[in-house]
């Protein structure tokens, strides 16, 4: 052995004899190793030396773990439990994938399969017959269902608001349609209630008035026959004067007359006649009567000259002129001043009854043809 080898040799401390107390750490047993399911390589033994006691201490240092046994880890890991996470998933808001197969999607999205233009709403029923909301709405409106009633109610509400703000708009809103009616008078007191009556019954109607005079009866007709003769002459005058008023155009005439129901019980009644020769229609309606005092009739008789040409059919003055002078009102307002019901209201109710009967006759005539 060389001298240099002797210098590098580390002297070993002598082991203590049995029963001789040594270092405290030398008498404590190493801890029991915990079970480890990781397959590790061999542990390298290191023998450090205690400086004080020169006792060698064996310490086991594990090598970093290697590959985990897949079967043992799978069996021993706890089952995964579903937990609630308030976080928004990353795919939130992204479009979902189509249910169709890729081939169908490509065929659907091909430019050749796409329509050239978007179809109109009226043609949707042809593309999808018998289905969809459009078909149901068309059926509900055409059959007079709830949609038609709602639409009519809304339209009537709007029209009512407009006519309340401007009463003259009523004639404009309801004018038109297929019905054209001519009134044998140019006085607004007669034309206006007749127009309102026909527009109420038919919805839309064009009603115009033309002047027409009667010279076959007295100024104030007495009796139904005289009033009918005056109305017929007014209608004939309209048809002979205005070329556009053909036999297919209905003409309405209103004539007031005095009627003695019983002795000295006089009433003013309005006769309303509508005539349409092309359909053979001629309807008569009488309005409600307005009581006239016997003294007023006596005044009319006294004011009519014995040689009056039409004394056989009535009087030379109208009952309105006598009653207006007595009541100190206009000759068109004496009915309202006497009974509380205006002449316009009386004529409007009679004309509405006439328009309703005329509409029923048109329906019967259309059914027969």
From TrEMBL:
Biased composition (Polar residues): 104-116
Official protein name in the record: (apollo) hypothetical protein
Molecular-function annotations in GO: protein kinase A regulatory subunit binding
Source domain of life: Eukaryota
Segments forming a coiled coil: none
Residue intervals of the Non-canonical purine NTP phosphatase/PRRC1 domain: 185-278
A cellular component term, taken from the record's GO annotations: cytoplasm
């Amino acid at each position: 052995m060389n001298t240099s080898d002797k210098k590098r040799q580390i002297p070993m401390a002598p082991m203590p004899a049995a029963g001789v107390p040594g270092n405290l750490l030398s008498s404590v047993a190493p801890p029991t190793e915990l079970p480890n399911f990781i397959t590790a390589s061999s542990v390298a033994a290191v023998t450090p030396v205690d400086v004080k006691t020169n006792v060698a201490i064996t310490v086991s240092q594990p090598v970093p773990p290697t590959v985990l046994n897949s079967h043992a880890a799978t069996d021993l890991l706890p089952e995964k439990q579903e937990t609630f996470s308030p976080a928004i998933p990353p795919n939130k808001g992204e479009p979902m994938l189509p249910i169709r197969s890729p081939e169908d999607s490509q065929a659907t999205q091909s430019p050749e399969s796409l329509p050239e233009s978007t179809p109109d709403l009226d043609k949707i029923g042809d593309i999808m017959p018998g289905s969809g909301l459009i078909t149901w709405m068309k059926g509900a409106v055409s059959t007079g269902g709830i949609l038609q009633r709602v639409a009519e109610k809304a339209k009537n509400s709007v029209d009512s608001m407009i006519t309340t703000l401007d009463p003259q708009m009523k004639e404009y809103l309801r004018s038109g349609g297929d019905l054209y009616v001519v009134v044998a008078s140019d006085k607004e007191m007669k034309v206006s209630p007749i127009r309102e009556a026909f527009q109420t019954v038919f919805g839309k109607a064009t009603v115009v008035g033309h002047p027409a005079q009667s010279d076959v009866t007295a100024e104030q007709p007495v009796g139904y026959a005289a009033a009918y003769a005056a109305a017929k002459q007014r209608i004939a005058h309209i048809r002979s004067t205005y070329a556009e008023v053909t036999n297919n155009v209905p003409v309405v005439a209103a004539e007031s007359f005095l009627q003695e129901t019983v002795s000295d019980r006089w009433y003013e009644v309005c006769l309303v006649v509508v005539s349409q020769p092309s359909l053979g229609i001629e309807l008569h309606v009488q309005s409600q009567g307005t009581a006239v005092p016997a003294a007023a009739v006596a005044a009319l008789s006294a004011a009519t000259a014995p040689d009056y040409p039409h004394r056989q059919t009535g009087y030379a003055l109208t009952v309105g002129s006598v009653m207006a002078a007595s009541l100190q009102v206009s000759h068109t307002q004496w009915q309202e001043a006497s009974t509380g019901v205006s002449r316009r209201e009386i004529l409007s109710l009679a004309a509405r009854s006439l328009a309703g009967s005329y509409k029923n006759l048109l329906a019967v005539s259309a059914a027969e043809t």
